Amino acid sequence: MKSRITAHSEYGKIESIILKKATDAFISEALINDQWQELNFTSSPSLVPGLKEYHDFEKLVTHHLAQTFYLPTCEDVSLDSIYCRDAAISTDHGLILCQMGKPQRIMEPEAIRAFCASHNIPILGQIDPPGTLEGGDVAWIDERTLAVGHTYRSNLEGIKQLKMLLAPFDIEVLKVDLPHYRGPSDVFHLMSIFSPIDRDVAVVYSPLMPVAFREELLNRSFHLIEVPHQEFDSMGCNVLAIAPRQCVIVAGNPLTKAALEQAGCSVFEYEGTEISLKGGGGPTCLTRPLYRSIIDTGFNE
Predict the structure, then answer these.
(1) How many Å apart are CA 48 and CA 27, to the nearest integer?
(2) Which end of the chain is more exposed for a tag (fewer CB within 10 A), N or C?
(3) How many Cβ atoms are within 10 Å of 33's Cβ, its own excluded?
(4) Strand blocks (E) in the chain
(5) Which tens digits make up the pLDDT trace of 170-214?
(6) What was the pLDDT predicted at 96?
(7) What is the pLDDT, as a whole number, of residue 131?
């Protein structure tokens, strides 16, 4: 069997990726002090430890990577721009620029647009107001099925526009209605409770998972690795697959790590107090994979 390249995967080996370095997002202690409360960070990130954390995280993610793009410093965006997954969705037909549900992040998709123009990265389309859609609410289940969370960050109009953009390519958009949980000010995306790490394996937090979506995954023969209650707030469920069953997680989730290893996964940890826990963005949030290589089984998934 041969490998092939696609954007329609959350588990294949990452071949190209967009990142936003902490140096270009956090910039200075003064900027952090000015923004962290308005952005609803749990506390103020410390700049120097945050830069060290990001350096170590970046090394894990970009090791043996074919192509890495770095978003530059931009005065129109905030600290949250470090969580670069949220501003765009990767497809085989070009990026879809999102429309942020968090008002303070409204300029991030335009920063991505300008970046794509200068790097010849194709754009398929965009989500327009009154639609809202954030990349953390969107995850590929297989190459023909895209799950999207209906949340405070991604509304029905945004999901409708996403369906229209993907309809010509015969892609099913599966709407997942998520609960109120901690309310509109909290960052609660689909990928807060669902992280695919292989063709038929996903890390999940079932207490906040809709029954219909959980059953859909089981009907598709997914093996679900359950994150324990005590490791949800420490981002045990936010798992980045850099390749099938090669997982990057925030340090401090030993039970989740053990469950991943029991399922045959290699687990790589990074300290994420400053760059992840305080801002509510784990390893999937810190990355916008563009293309991944997957094994061609000879049939569409």
Answers:
(1) 10
(2) N
(3) 12
(4) 3-6, 13-19, 67-70, 88-89, 95-97, 123-126, 138-142, 145-150, 172-177, 194-198, 201-204, 223-226, 240-243, 246-250, 266-270, 288-295
(5) 999 999 999 999 999 888 999 999 999 999 999 999 999 999 999
(6) 98
(7) 98
Do 127 and 100 form a contact (C-beta atoms < 8 A)?
no
Buried b (16+ CB within 10 A) or exposed e, 69-94: bebeebeebbbbbbbbbbbbbbbebb
Residue whose pair of structure tokens reads 């994150």 in the numeric block: 227
How far is C-alpha 153 from the geometric centre of its chain's CA atoms? 14
Residue with structure tokens 């994979």?
289
For the record, the structure tokens of 31 come out as 């900027």
- With a cut of 50, list the residues of the chain below it in pLDDT: 299-301
Predicted confidence at residue 301, as pLDDT, reads 47
Kind and range of the H or E run holding 214: helix 211-219
